Structures are given as C-alpha cells and as structure tokens.
Fold this sequence. Notes:
This protein has five helices and twelve strands. By secondary structure, it is an alpha/beta fold. Helix 4 (148-163) crosses helix 5.
Amino acid sequence: MKKIKIILIAIFVILIGGAAYLSTFKLETIQVTGCDVVSEQEIIDRIEGSGYFNNTVVIYIKNKINPITDIPFVAKLDIDFVSKNKVTVTVYEKSIAGCIEYMDSYVYFDKDGIILESSNELISGIPCIEGLNFESWEMGKKLPIDNEKKFQSILAITQLIEKYELQIDEIRFTSENEIVLRHDEIKIELGEGDYLAVQMMNLGSILEGLEGQSGTLYMKDFNSDNATASFKPN
C-alpha cells in the first residue's frame, strides 16, 4: 500500500511539474504569411479567439487534430511551432476568379465557376460581372447561369485575366450579349466573345499604351487575321 502511495505521489509530482513547464509555452508572437485577400490581423484575431488557451503547444496540437476551416476566403491554415512563445501561420487563400453582384452582396467564384463565398465587400482587384440575372445561388455549386455560352465566356475571360495578369475592374454583358470590360477609365468592347483568346492575349500591351487615358477601346473585330483595335477618347 505504501509503495502504491509513493507511485501515486510521484505521478502527481510529474504531472504538476509537466503542467508547470507547459504553462511556460505562452503565445506571444504569431507570424502570418500568405495573405492577399484576408488581413493578417483577422487571422491573428481568429487564432487568439479560438479557445486555444493562448498556449503554443495547445495551438499546434489542436490545429493538427481540428484545424480552423471556416474563415471566409481561406482554404487552409498551416500552423507551425517555432519556439515556446512563437508560431508561424501559412494562409492558403481560395483562388478567386471573379464576383457577381447579388442584391446587396458580392458572390465570389473560382476559375471553374464554383461559388466560394459571399461578402458585403467588393475585393480590390477582383473583376465584377454585371448584366447577369438569377434568383438564387448555392455555396459550392456552379454559377446559376442557364446560358451555357455566356457561362463559358465568363470562365474564359476570368481565366485569361489571371493568365495575362490583366487589371480588369468590371465585366459586363449588354442586352445584345456582347462583352464589355472596364480598365480604370477605359471601356473595352470585345463583341460576342468569338475571339477572346487572341483579344485577351494582346489586351495588356494595348492598355499599356493607353495608360492614364479615358475612352472606349474597340476590339470587336480583333482576331488573328485582323489585329487592329481603335481607341476613341472621351
């Protein structure tokens, strides 16, 4: 019996000592990388407020077992233990291709037309599409656009914008189903989208020559056989 008591006391001392040592792993620094859309402070606030007891070991272990997954526009967080008082957080954001204004919010989608998030804020640098009408949408589903040609045009335009690193603020479909882009104060008329690949491939260099100007760039007939565009200043 005495031997059991000694063993229990030893275990208790070890546990108390371990808890005391573990308490020295107090989180003081969170270093965040990978943020473009979300802010670093938003990530820090979320981690500090997620019931991790402000302890670096607990933060690391709990995130491995039950990672944070419900931060808007964030696909994944990797939390790495650096020292007793510091962790690093690598943020993997969802790849946003564009957005559609819906009522008083913006519905964001990826390069495949799958809806990612909805927000009241318009993210800078993300092209916004106008001239589309639909009654409802569902997270994780395809954009609810019945016109398949228009849907494919949207995907093609947003993918080409990313490929050629173009700054396009707005994508609009007219009542005649023609495509109009906006770059700063320049309106770009592309026609019905039959020559999108060659138009978008050349658009960047054309816009460089028009930087700072305001007007309309006509590219409806711009194709591989007729590489001619005209610009009408306002």
